[in-house]
Amino acid sequence: MTANELETLIAHGLQCTHIALEGDGRHWFATIVSPEFEGLRPIQRHQKVYATLGQRMHTDEVHALSMKTLTPAEWQAASGTSA
Known about the structure:
Layout: H1 3-13, E1 18-23, E2 27-33, H2 42-53, E3 64-70, H3 72-79
Parallel strand pairs: 2-3
Antiparallel strand pairs: 1-2
Helix pairs in contact: 1-2
Family: Belongs to the BolA/IbaG family.
Organism: Lampropedia hyalina DSM 16112
Protein name: Acid stress-induced BolA-like protein IbaG/YrbA, predicted regulator of iron metabolism
């Protein structure tokens, strides 16, 4: 899977204001900013992302995905930019 394919899958399933991906096609690190994360604990945020990927996590299309999941306000505070 390419970074563009993975980004498209995530963006299709979540309203995202920012997605950044790094990886080698099997192992990925994603920074995902979404207003849908508002009020959710980190595990709940990750579950939302995993839900967008569905079976791809189970069929090894995406072997490993580490994430930093932020709300737009958290992203702005952390990076000093607007989401």
